[in-house]
Amino acid sequence: MSPTQKGSENQSSQASEYINIEAEENLDETNDQDVNKGHGEEDDGENHAEEDDGEDHAEDNEGSQKAKRQKTLLVWEDFVEVTLPSGEVKVECVHCKKKWLNTQVDLQQLTNDTRKYPVDVDMKPPSLIGLDGKYDVIKMRESIANWLMATEQPFNTVEDDMFVYMMKTANPMFERVSRATIKSDCIKVYERERKKLKALINDVSSICLTTNCWKSSHQRIEYMVITGHFIDQNWRLQKRVLSFVHVPPPRIGLDIADGIYKCLKECEVEGKIFSISVDNASYNDRAVSTFKKNFSKVKKLTCGGRLFHVRCCAHILNLLVKDGLSRIEDVIEEVREAVKYINHSEARRQSFSNVAHQLQVPDRKLLIDVTTRWNSTYDTLSLAIKFKDVFPRYADYEPHFKHLPTEQDWENVERVCEVLQVFKVCTNVISGSDYPTANLYLIEVYKVKETLDKGVLSESSFIRDMTNKRKEKFDKYWGECHLLMAIAGVLDPRLKKRVVNFCYEKIYSSDEASKNIEDVSKALELMYEEYLENHDALMKENASNKSGSSRGNGSSKANEESIGSGWDAFDEYLKDADFDRPGNGNRAEPS
Q1: Are 178 and 164 spatial neighbours (Cβ–Cβ below 8 Å)?
Q2: With 60 as the cut, is the pLDDT of residue 347 above it?
Q3: Are 141 and 185 in contact (CB under 8 A)?
Q4: Is 310 helix (H, G, I), strand (E, B) or coil?
Q5: 375 with 424: CB under 8 angstroms?
Q6: CA gap 244, 263 in Å, rounded
Q7: pLDDT over 70 at 364, yes or no
Q8: Can you tell me the mean pLDDT for 151-163?
Q9: C-alpha 585: how far from chain center
Q10: What pLDDT shows up at residue 185?
């Protein structure tokens, strides 16, 4: 079958609304005909059905059996065909055990049902019955340990009487365990997963690190989390937490550097670090500078280390936004208190809802923001703006309601929200963790720069003053050429070097844009030359290993020479050929 025929067959199978099995379809059509016939024709219909069945069986028994077309859609991995005692064949969900008749199965139904059970392959529950048919206590305790750690439950949960009652109800063979035992089980699970992580990153050539520091709310202890980002052997983007490091205050650059290096040493990846992304705290600058000096002594850094230190783009956007929100802090506080007052009781919410209905405003619940997250504040303000006419009317019904921003305040909030909407979209794009984001930075930075340039030229003095302060920070962090964003954009086959030419002409002046574009071109050429050096070194190493094994076994060399390989001859041709490589001048490729 040709590729075109295969493609059309797949399209037709996906376009069909229902999934039909030949035998079931024939039987159903016959049954439909029987219903429409009169009573006198019922026997004939049944005879026809039996004859059809006989013909089907005869065709099945001819020579080789006809193979049914395989179900290639991924959704079928979560469904199996089961035969009921009545002889009916249905499809059954492996999660909820719900059954559908084959002739009534809608592909969309199966897909929607599967989405309710997003079970990862590695997280499928283990069987508690061993190969010998006995109940496995160890696996049961391991499952409990995983549940405790995933849901952050205290160890003494397993000693609670109701927990034991629940487990014995589900499994009468369950035995009570102590908090000390389950703690030991959790440590064993951690050590096993640690070994899996080391095995996963053992074959990885380069790892990018991100760090973040915060204070535990209940322990009052400051931690630093170190996360590794890399491409595995199957070309899948991976993100793994490498370690949590306790960093006591006051944090200084050397403490951060020591904590990160200790983690890398334990994971045995200290020689594989490609870059480190940190926020813009001064101690992080000193820590990365220390790392860069130490790593450069044992490993040649890409582009001379210009790609090693990466400033967190999301953190820079956060700093720009906070400068804007500080200009309307009084209004934000008024809106925040108003929302708190209305959401304090059901009666107040109902009264506010009635006023909103009278003014033909769609009824929505007001949101209270998280003060440490500006995107939450933006959501609160953008929703409150829609109720700006409702608040004064509500105050007529509630004499104790005093939180009323002025009309000028609402106008300033609207202007700020228009700008914040751009920042929120940019933050959502570059904060993704399930897909590569480095190639998206440059376009989003250009959009931010364009928004700031428009704000500087705004007719409103309020917007101009707010934007000027933001623009100073923008120029501070992105005024210099950001090589990583540019190179990642060029390596995106959809964008290539056109994205650098387009964005740099918008972000920088004409002279700066030309200089930075040339800087990016030189960095790309340098990376290419470094890649060639690494490739040639790897080829020589493989060749030496190959020749060494051949000397150890003379017959193997004779066999290789007798078998031969076209790739060996082509490799020799590439070594001797003088191609037009960047930096080698205009050399013509040999004909």
Answers
A1: no
A2: yes
A3: yes
A4: strand
A5: yes
A6: 8
A7: yes
A8: 92
A9: 43
A10: 93
Residues 6+ apart with CB under 8 A from 212: 224, 225, 227, 279
Contact assessment for residue 239 and residue 229, using Cβ atoms and an 8 Å cutoff: yes
Residue 57 has pLDDT above 70, yes or no: no
Pair type for strands 273-278 and 105-106 = unpaired
> What H or E segment, with its residue span, contains residue 70?
none
Residue 360: which region, alpha, beta or left (left: phi > 0; alpha: psi -120 to 50)? left
Total residues found in the chain within this entry: 591
- Tell me, rounded to whole angstroms, the distance of Cα 583 from its chain centroid: 38
**The predicted structure's pLDDT at residue 563:** 44
Q: What is the largest CA-CA distance in the chain?
A: 100
| Mean predicted confidence (pLDDT) in 450-460 | 87
Specify the pLDDT at position 121.
Answer: 40
Query: What is the mean pLDDT of the segment spanning 472-482?
Result: 77
3-class state of residue 242 by DSSP: strand
- Structure token digits, residue 139: 């696996």
pLDDT tens digits, one per residue of 221-278: 788 899 999 988 888 888 899 998 888 877 788 888 888 888 888 888 888 889 998 8
Q: How far is CA 333 from CA 50, 336, 338, in A?
A: 79, 5, 8
* β-strand pairing of 99-101 with 18-19: unpaired
Q: Give the span between the Cα atoms of 276 and 273, in whole angstroms.
A: 8
d(CA 260, CA 209): 10
CB atoms within 10 A of CB 585: 7
**What span, in angstroms and rounded, lies between the C-alpha atoms of 135 and 127?**
9
pTM of the model: 0.64
Paired tokens of 97: 């055990």
Q: HSE, CB side, 13 Å, CA atoms: give it for residue 360.
A: 0
Q: Is the pLDDT of residue 119 over 60?
A: no
Q: Hey, which residues does 277 pair with through a beta bridge?
A: 210, 310
Alpha-carbon gap, residue 148 to 158, rounded angstroms: 9
Cα-based torsion angle of the residue sequence 56, 58, 62, 64 in order, rounded to the nearest 10 degrees? 50
Task: Report the relative pairing of strands 99-101 and 89-93 from DSSP bridges.
Answer: antiparallel
Q: Between the CA of residue 114 and those of 95, 100, 107, what are the distances in Å?
A: 8, 14, 11
H or E segment and range at residue 17 = none
Q: What digits encode the pLDDT tens for the residues 182-204?
A: 999 999 999 999 999 999 998 88
Which stretches does DSSP call E strand in 28-157? 79-83, 89-93, 99-101, 105-106
406 CA to centre of own chain: 42
Residues 370-400 pLDDT 10s? 877 888 888 889 889 999 999 999 999 888 8
